[in-house]
Amino acid sequence: MRIIELNESSRKKILENLLKRSPHQYETYNETVAQIINDVRSNGDEALFLYTKKFDKVDINADNIKVTDEETEYAYKQVDPKLIDIIRKAKANIEEFHIKQKQNSWIDASKEGIILGQKITPIEKVGVYVPGGKAAYPSTVLMDIIPAKVAGVKRIVMVTPPDKDGRVNPGTLVAAKEAGVTEIYKVGGAQAIAALAFGTESIPKVDKIVGPGNIYVALAKKAVYGYVSIDSIAGPSEILVLADETANPRYVAADLLSQAEHDELASSILITTSRNLADKVLEEIENFLKTLSRSDIIKKSLANYGYILIAKNMNEAIEATNEIASEHLEIMTKDPYSDMTKIKNAGAIFIGEYSCEPLGDYMAGPNHTLPTNGTARFFSPLSVDDFVKKSSIISYNKDALEKIYKDIETFALSEGLSAHANSVSVRFNN
């Protein structure tokens, strides 16, 4: 991890370096992903089973691709009861937060004979992709399924790659059952995304696909967008800590490392107005690396995408923070709530030294599926809104339309659309 003076040049170079992590930069994989998608689209289960054998080294067929009730019951016996209780606590917090996001249909009627409104309808079928193997995250299962359930989605189809024995991670199964999944299939990778997008003999076609995955999954979601909706094309995890001289260097270091351990492409950035804090944070990082289990991954992550940026003042620090638009933003300053009001771009904002990022990952309630790679400038966290459609409602009686039909007719003719004009005028011209 390097300490750099924040200026126009350094900021530009860092942004360029961070953008290299985007799935959009890995075009060399596009041909492979396209081939897998086309094969599954054309050949259904046959292709699905062949790719599962090739990539996951396990024989999956029409008889065992779907997770059974017995497998789920067995998973409950394998998971520590304490963890099951914690999963249930997290579920309750996530549900409580997302219930507040629900919108209701509405209608406004006027005395002039005009009715306008909006109808909220849940998406009927949603696919949830859950990584398997070493990257098994029951917390993400809760975050992706619960908003869909709260929104009223009737069919929630989960896909996740099996292990070499043809089983699904027990924690993943427990979390999915607790969250309210409808059905689970043992398939992963680009082939799973293709199956959800187009349907096979075993897996139903869905209307929207959500959930994180590796580069093949990300590019597959990008490729099927338009045939189905997707949540986003997620990139590697990232954290930015905004701090001044009042911050605890031990806490700052620990929080930077919490994201660096995800993988070598993860980004951890400290922007501070205090050189003294920067030096102390580096010392704390070195101490933590002696004991953390994933220190090898952390070291590579920090070497590639770890930065400590020294700003001249807090305004400059906040400006850079907004430009980077990090997935996770922690604010550890003397007046964090005031500084928070100046933040325009961030996936999730953690305020104060006891609001560490893992709080949001596991237990607080807000969704931890967040925009990455600077997309917080225009994307939002996964929410109930992602699982509903909105239809406009318009109703005019004759008197109401008669008052404005000439305006509509004129507008339509100005655009050269005479049939539009006729559609209105025909109701009043004998």
UniProtKB/TrEMBL annotation:
Binds 1 zinc ion per subunit. CDD domains: Histidinol_dh. NAD(+) binds at Y129, Q191, N214. Its cofactor is Zn(2+). GO terms for biological process: L-histidine biosynthetic process. Pfam families: Histidinol_dh. It is an enzyme of class 1 (oxidoreductase). Zn(2+) binds at Q259, H262, D361, H420. Pathway: Amino-acid biosynthesis; L-histidine biosynthesis; L-histidine from 5-phospho-alpha-D-ribose 1-diphosphate: step 9/9. InterPro entries: Ald_DH/histidinol_DH (IPR016161), Histidinol_DH_CS (IPR001692), Histidinol_DH_monofunct (IPR022695), Hstdl_DH (IPR012131). GO terms for cellular component: cytosol. Substrate binds at S237, Q259, H262, H328, D361, E415, H420. The active site is at E327 (proton acceptor), H328 (proton acceptor). GO terms for molecular function: histidinol dehydrogenase activity; NAD binding; zinc ion binding. It catalyses: L-histidinol + 2 NAD(+) + H2O = L-histidine + 2 NADH + 3 H(+). Its EC number is 1.1.1.23. Keywords: Amino-acid biosynthesis, Histidine biosynthesis, Metal-binding, NAD, Oxidoreductase, Zinc. Catalyzes the sequential NAD-dependent oxidations of L-histidinol to L-histidinaldehyde and then to L-histidine. Belongs to the histidinol dehydrogenase family. HAMAP family: HisD. This is Histidinol dehydrogenase. The lineage of its organism: Bacteria, Bacillati, Bacillota, Clostridia, Lachnospirales. The gene is hisD.
